Structure formats: structure tokens, C-alpha cells
Amino acid sequence: MINIAYIVLGLAAGIFGGMFGIGGGTILIPALVYLFGLTQHQAQGTTLAALIPPIGLLAALRYWQAGNVKISIAAFICLGFFFGGYIGANWIQGVSEPVLKKMFGIFLLVIAANMIFGK
Q: pTM of this prediction?
């Protein structure tokens, strides 16, 4: 069941990635820390491993060498992220430039407030 949750997380990150061009740092890392109980280092390493093709191979390798990558989690996130990116990119095409900018700004503000004032 937990693997389904990781796929859903990857799907959400993919959707937001497709919509806003983001996902790893603003979706996956906070979710892995606050919802799944990973350490910050594990969350960053696992996110990099999920985003390897082609983004973070060398950085993920270094995190893996330090024992901070959960490959089994990264694989399921990658699966959801793959399909979520396509869904998000499709959804956002009909949104105007000004609305998209506002949506992106609000999204980042909510994430920033949670990171600053959350537990």
C-alpha cells in the first residue's frame, strides 16, 4: 500500500512539474520529510534518484554512497512522476500566462510558508 502512496506522490509531483516546471524540491522533498518521515538528506537523495533520467545522476550517486538514497521509494515516485508530468502539462495548456504566473507564485508562497513556519 505504501508503494501506491509513493506513486501518487510521484504523480502529484509530475502534474505540478508539467504545469509549473517544478516538482523535486518543492513537492517531493517536503512530502518525503513531512508525510513519509524521511530525513532531509534521505528526502533529497531519494528525490535526486527519482529524477536521475537525466537530472541528478552524479549528485544522487554521492547521496547513495553516503547511504541517503531509498532506491525502492525512488523507483515508485519515478513511475508516478512520468505519467503525472504528462497530465500536468496537458492541464496547464489552457491557462493564460497571467493566471499561470499567479498560480505559480501562490504555490511557491504556500510551500515557503510551510517550510518556514511548519514543524
A: 0.66
